[in-house]
C-alpha cells in the first residue's frame, strides 16, 4: 500500500462497499420496510466509498465529499460506510493535510453529527453521541501518532541526505586539497631539478670544447640532480599508490635540516649561496617542510632569473614562536626599481607571480604565516617569510 497507495485505498473502498451491499441484501431478505429501492441504494453506496480512493492524494477533497455523502447514507441507514468513511477521513486529514485542517474538518463532522442526532430525537441519542465522540477522539489520536511518525521519518531521511551531501562535499574538498598539495610538491621537485639541469646543460654545451673538465662536472651535476628528482617523484607516487597502513618504508620528506644539502647543490649548479641557519629547535614537520620548500623555490628562481654571476644569501632564524626565512640575491649586480614605473601614463606594472610564488604563498598562509616577495633595496630580489611555530603540548 505504501508503494501503490491508490491501489491499496481502492481495495479498502471496494471491501467497504461490498459490506454495505451485503447488509442491504440481508435487510432485503428480512423485509425491512424503511429500505430504499436498490436503484437508489446501490449508487449511493458506490458514491459513499468512491472518494476514499483519493484520501491520500487529495485528503481534503476526499474528506469533505465523504462528509456530504455520509449525511445521505446515514439518513437512509444503508450500512456502515458512512461511519467507517468518516473515521478514515478524519485520520487521513490529520496525517496528510495537517493538524489545522484536521481541526476544521472535525468541527464540521461534529456539527453534522449533532444536527443528525437532534433530528432523530430518539432515546439512544446520548449513547450515539458518546460513541461519536469516542470514535472521533480515537481517529484523531491515531492520526496524530501516525503523523508524528511520518514527520520523524521525513526528518531522519532529510538528515541522512544532508549527512551524505556533507560527506560527499568533505570528500571533494579533501581530494582537492590533496591534489593541490601534490601539485605543489611536484612543482617544487620538478621545477628545481629541471632548472638546475637546464642551466648545467647550457654551461656544458658552451664549455665542452674549451674546458672539457668543466663540462664533465656539469654533466655529473645533471646526472645527480636527475636521480634525486626521480627519487622524490617515486616517493610521491608511492604515497599515491599505497596507504600508510601498508607497512612499507617511506623516505622522509626534506626539512629545514636539509638546507645545507640544498645550498651545496645550488653551488654546484653555479650559484654561490651563503647559508646562515640559527638554532631552530624542534619544528613541526609541516613548518619545517614549508621552510625548505620556500628556500628551494627562491633559489630556483635565482638560478632561472637572476642571470650569470648572481649570488644568493639565505638566513633562517627563530625568535620565540616565529621562524623567519630571508632569501635574497644580488641579481648579478643589476639594480631593480623598488616600485615598477608607470608606462605611457598607465598604472604601474604589477609584479609577476607564477606558480612558484603562488605555492610559496600558500605554504606560508596554510600555517598562518606571511610572505613578502619583491625587489631588494640596492638591487636584486628577496623573499621574506614568517611562519608561526605551533608546538604540540
Q: What do these coordinates show?
A:
- Helices cover 64% and strands 9% of the residues.
- Mean pLDDT is 79; it is low at 244-249 and 335-353.
- The chain is of the alpha+beta class and 393 residues long.
- It has helices at 5-29, 38-49, 59-76, 81-97, 99-120, 125-207, 212-241, 259-268, 285-305, 355-366; strands spanning 273-277, 312-319, 322-329, 370-375, 381-388.
- The protein is built from ten helices and five strands; from the N terminus they run H-H-H-H-H-H-H-H-E-H-E-E-H-E-E.
- Among the domains are: 5-121; 252-336 and 353-393, Heat Shock Protein 90, CATH 3.30.565.10.
- Helix 4 (81-97) packs antiparallel against helix 5 (99-120).
- It has a five-stranded mixed sheet, covered by helices on one side.
- The protein is rod-shaped, with a radius of gyration of 43 Å.
- A hairpin with a 2-residue loop joins strand 2 (312-319) and strand 3.
Amino acid at each position: 500500500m505504501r508503494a501503490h497507495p491508490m491501489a491499496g485505498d481502492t481495495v479498502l473502498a471496494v471491501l467497504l462497499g461490498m459490506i454495505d451491499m451485503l447488509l442491504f441484501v440481508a435487510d432485503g431478505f428480512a423485509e425491512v420496510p424503511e429500505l430504499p429501492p436498490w436503484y437508489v441504494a446501490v449508487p449511493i453506496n458506490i458514491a459513499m466509498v468512491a472518494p476514499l480512493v483519493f484520501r491520500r492524494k487529495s485528503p481534503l477533497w476526499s474528506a469533505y465529499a465523504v462528509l456530504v455523502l455520509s449525511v445521505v447514507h446515514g439518513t437512509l441507514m444503508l450500512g456502515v460506510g458512512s461511519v467507517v468513511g468518516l473515521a478514515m477521513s478524519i485520520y487521513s486529514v490529520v496525517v496528510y493535510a495537517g493538524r489545522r485542517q484536521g481541526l476544521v474538518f472535525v468541527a464540521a463532522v461534529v456539527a453534522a453529527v449533532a444536527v443528525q442526532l437532534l433530528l432523530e430525537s430518539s432515546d439512544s441519542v446520548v449513547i450515539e453521541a458518546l460513541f461519536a465522540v469516542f470514535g472521533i477522539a480515537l481517529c484523531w489520536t491515531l492520526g496524530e501518532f501516525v503523523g508524528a511518525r511520518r514527520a520523524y521519518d521525513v526528518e531522519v531521511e532529510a538528515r541522512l541526505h544532508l549527512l551524505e551531501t556533507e560527506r560527499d562535499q568533505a570528500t571533494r574538498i579533501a581530494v582537492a586539497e590533496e591534489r593541490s598539495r601534490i601539485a605543489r610538491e611536484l612543482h617544487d621537485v620538478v621545477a628545481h631539478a629541471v632548472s638546475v639541469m637546464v642551466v648545467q646543460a647550457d654551461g656544458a654545451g658552451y664549455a665542452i670544447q674549451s674546458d672539457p673538465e668543466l663540462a664533465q662536472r656539469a654533466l655529473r651535476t645533471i646526472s645527480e640532480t636527475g636521480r634525486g628528482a626521480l627519487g622524490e617523484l617515486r616517493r610521491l607516487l608511492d604515497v599515491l599508490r599505497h596507504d600508510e597502513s601498508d607497512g612499507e618504508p617511506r623516505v622522509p620528506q626534506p626539512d629545514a635540516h636539509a638546507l645545507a644539502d640544498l645550498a651545496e647543490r645550488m653551488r654546484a649548479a653555479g650559484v654561490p649561496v651563503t647559508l646562515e641557519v640559527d638554532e631552530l629547535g624542534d619544528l613541526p614537520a609541516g613548518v619545517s617542510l614549508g621552510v625548505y620548500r620556500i628556500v628551494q623555490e627562491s633559489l630556483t628562481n635565482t638560478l632561472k632569473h637572476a642571470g650569470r654571476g648572481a649570488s644568493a644569501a639565505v638566513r633562517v632564524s627563530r625568535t620565540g614562536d616565529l621562524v623567519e626565512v630571508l632569501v635574497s640575491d644580488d641579481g648579478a649586480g643589476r639594480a631593480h626599481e623598488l616600485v615598477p614605473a608607470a608606462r605611457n601614463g598607465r598604472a604601474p606594472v604589477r609584479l609577476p607571480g607564477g606558480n612558484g610564488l603562488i605555492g610559496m604563498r600558500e605554504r606560508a598562509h596554510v600555517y598562518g604565516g606571511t610572505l613578502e616577495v619583491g625587489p631588494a633595496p640596492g638591487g636584486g630580489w628577496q623573499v621574506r617569510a614568517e611562519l608561526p611555530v605551533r608546538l604540540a603540548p
